[in-house]
From TrEMBL:
Keywords: Antioxidant, Metal-binding, Oxidoreductase. It comes from Wallemia mellicola (strain ATCC MYA-4683 / CBS 633.66) (Wallemia sebi (CBS 633.66)). Belongs to the iron/manganese superoxide dismutase family. Its EC number is 1.15.1.1. This is Superoxide dismutase. Residues 3-83 form the Manganese/iron superoxide dismutase N-terminal domain. Gene3D superfamilies: Fe,Mn superoxide dismutase (SOD) domain (1.10.287.990), Iron/manganese superoxide dismutase, C-terminal domain (3.55.40.20). Destroys radicals which are normally produced within the cells and which are toxic to biological systems. One of its GO terms (cellular component) is mitochondrion.
């Protein structure tokens, strides 16, 4: 079955003024759609190569599968990571199991924000900053991935921040710290806490 572009759980202008409508529209309908289309094409070509027992072509397609598959996975997580600033979902869940884990492993919300921001700013070129759960030791860790590489075991992604220029440049130009400061106003903490609960069951 072909992959499809997921619908956003909010309107394109719902994250303003922190992420503008133009960015959200282009990011979702153009960039994410491109990853979906390219992933479907790569999977079709890979299936044909498998049927033909064409190993060289299967190997050659790995990069396209990784890049576009990662782009689809990451963005599908990213849209659910976000929520309108005034919504209940964007309220940090003090007292929750997730918040207690943040306090235990990262020293609280403000330090979480500092660590995620610093790690994401440290990415050379394009990539993603993540808050993840290490499934081996059940501790929260701040990690990064390059380009469109997805988070892989033992880490489970709880929320991610897209630091590709298409995610912020129209509004924040080259001032990445302003974008990162703004995006914390529209993190969907309810979704983040749910992912933590699901991953620690």
């Amino acid at each position: 079955m072909a992959h499809e572009l997921p619908q956003l759980p909010y309107a394109y202008n719902a994250l303003e003024p922190f992420i503008c409508e133009e960015i959200m529209t282009i990011h979702h309908t153009k960039h994410h759609q491109t990853y979906v289309n390219a992933l479907n094409a790569a999977e079709k070509s890979f299936a044909e190569a498998q049927s033909a027992k064409d190993v060289k072509s299967q190997i050659a397609l790995q990069a396209a599968l990784k890049f576009n598959g990662g782009g689809h996975i990451n963005h599908s997580l990213f849209w659910k990571n976000l929520a309108p600033a005034q919504s209940a979902e964007a309220k940090y869940p003090e007292g929750s199991a997730f918040a207690k884990a943040v306090e235990r492993d990262l020293g609280g919300y403000e330090n979480l924000k500092k660590e995620v921001t610093a790690a994401t700013l440290g990415i050379q070129g394009s990539g993603w900053g993540w808050l993840a759960l290490n499934s081996k030791n059940k501790r929260l860790e701040v990690i990064t991935t390059a380009n469109q590489d997805p988070v892989t075991p033992p880490h489970v992604p709880l929320f991610g921040i897209d630091i590709w220029e298409h995610a912020f440049y129209l509004q924040y130009k080259n001032v990445k710290p302003d974008y990162l400061n703004a995006i914390f106003n529209v993190i969907n903490w309810a979704e983040t806490a749910k992912r933590y609960d699901d991953a620690t069951k």
